[in-house]
Task: inverse folding
């Protein structure tokens, strides 16, 4: 499984990802560590995409995944110690996780495709 680093990818390549998928981001100057994220990618059938992103302590964090409607997507957020922080694992492909980190650090964002075909999704971190 490959981990995709949102902050590194945006900082180094200004979100000119080398994949064939379009990606967009916008810089944000609020209380976050990294830039706002608004990108498009796809997760293969019965696979997991894993992204890393640094969130700031005591500031509300929010991750949204909006799929193309073809399969069920689940969203899981893990801290740097691999503890599950929050999840959205209902039966649809629109997922939202909101929490307040107790410390500043990297979090893993796991997008799991439960279906037998790929799902093109939008990942949003405001």
Result:
């Amino acid at each position: 499984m490959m981990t995709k680093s949102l902050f590194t990818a945006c900082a180094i390549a200004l979100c000119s990802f080398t994949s064939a998928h379009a990606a967009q981001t916008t810089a944000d100057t609020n209380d976050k560590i990294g830039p706002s994220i608004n990108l498009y990618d796809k997760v293969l059938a019965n696979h997991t995409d894993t992204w890393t992103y640094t969130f700031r302590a005591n500031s509300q964090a929010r991750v949204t995944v909006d799929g193309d409607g073809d399969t069920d997507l689940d969203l899981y957020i893990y801290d740097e110690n691999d503890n599950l922080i929050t999840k959205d694992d209902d039966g649809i492909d629109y997922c939202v996780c909101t929490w307040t980190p107790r410390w500043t650090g990297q979090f893993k964002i796991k997008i799991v495709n439960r279906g037998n075909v790929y799902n093109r999704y939008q990942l949003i971190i405001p």
